[in-house]
Amino acid sequence: MLRAIVALLLILGSLVLLEVSRAGVTIERADVGDTPVSLYARPGAEGPVAVIAHGFAGSRQMMQGYALPLARAGYRVHVFDFLGHGRHDRPMSGDVGSVDGTTRLLVDQTAEVVEAAGAGGEPIALLGHSMATDVLVRVAAERGDIGPVVLVSAFSEVIDASLPRDLLLVTGAWEPGLRGFALEAARMVDPGAEEGETVIAGDIRRRAEIAPFVEHVSVLYSRAGRRASLDWLDTAYGRSSNVAILPTGWAILGLLGGLVLIFAPLARRLPAHQVHANDPSAGQIALAALGPAILAPLVAVALNPGVLPVLVADYLALHLALFGAAQILLLWRWGVTTGPVDWRALGLLALWCALFGLALDRYAANFLPTPGRLWIIAALALGAVPFMLADALLTYRAGLGRRFALRGGFFLSLGIAVALDFEGLFFLMMIAPVILLFFAVFGTMGRAAGTRSGPLAPGLVLGLALAWALGVSFPLFQA
């Protein structure tokens, strides 16, 4: 009971703070060509225009931490989805390794959004994260209507001693390489520049700001980084904003963590249904972890079909299917049974996964697929469902050590795949943290349901949930 009360208070408190951060701001949907754009502004706002762009595998929702304070301060903020990202259904294309390829298309797309945003002759502010930073610098180099530029976790070979003229670089303290680049960019203006110091040379103004205790993703929610960004723009436009920078990052963690925490008390209300299965021995667990870890990449790399218009998605679907099928075959040989499907557990877990996804989509990152992604999710499910069924069976009532060993085998197999084809499967390294987070969140809820219902219902639901999460997370891409 205490756990449920704590979780409920955490959820309610987080929701209140997240909604307060939106108070007084209208969020409207618009389209610039086929680019979806969200417009953040107070009713009747006439402040400067700011265009905000997300990083690789990001979305408009991921930039709310910066968009909302600017809008509350009176700015008119335009946030858009890059090609193939978020709710943008047109894939990225071109040569990702060439400035004249994919980068050129993203620069042109951003320029269209800037053009549509307009500002009545007033310079437009640009703010972007990670991948977007290079794109924004190139846009600023080609246009005469760009004002202050804020780059979060930046890297761009285009930055020099005079471009951009008004530049703030915000970097997480736990991003050593990018932190060094930001300081180097400041020292292009003044060789003696230090972190946190504004340097000025004629009409050039630059600063390398360090956001403490954050890395490449959590920097998007750093209160210090967001405060520095608002102050930088205010100074550039001769404004003064009395806007609180709320701890929305912690509130998002509180909301999502609370939803996971409260699921266990709910699951305990399910009727108990024990599955009497043969418990695999330590040697069998080792074989189930290492055998598929070697087999799956050796076969999948050779067969990599290249059909789905998502980076490495078709490979991953095949890898998951082979890995899961190999484990299921071993379990069948060992006489491990699944038990029946508990439809009440299946329904409750599916409902809670959907609720978690909707909360994530509203406050943190895109989780709702466009129609063009539905068939991709279906294709990924062909691999994800057998993979999660095998995982549910092998980890049913298992301790932490067994769960770590089994899932570690899967991550080992991804590493082997990358080693076999580094250039073609490099992006698997970016998918691994997504799957790790999936196990921590959805796996925890599935374990709570499985303890009561047996492993089959969690295996089915989490297989579909994994396919969904992968299908909406990574960019559409066609060469």
Note the main attributes of this structure.
479 residues, membrane, Hydrolase_4, Rossmann fold, alpha/beta, AB_hydrolase_fold, hydrolase
Structure description:
With 479 residues, the chain is of the alpha/beta class. The chain has three domains: 1-21 and 248-269, no CATH class; 22-245, Rossmann fold, CATH 3.40.50.1820; 270-473, no CATH class. The protein is built from 15 helices and nine strands. It has helices spanning 2-20, 64-72, 102-117, 131-142, 176-187, 223-237, 248-267, 282-303, 313-333, 343-363, 374-394, 400-420, 422-425, 428-453, 456-473; strands at residues 26-32, 35-41, 49-53, 76-80, 124-129, 146-152, 166-172, 198-201, 204-211. A nine-stranded mixed β-sheet has the order 1-2-4-3-5-6-7-9-8, sandwiched between helices. α7 (248-267) runs antiparallel to α10 (343-363) and α8 runs antiparallel to α9. The longest helix has 26 residues, at 428-453. The protein is globular, with a radius of gyration of 24 Å. GO terms for molecular function: hydrolase activity. The chain crosses the membrane at residues 244-264, 285-303, 315-334, 341-360, 372-392, 404-420, 426-444, 456-477.
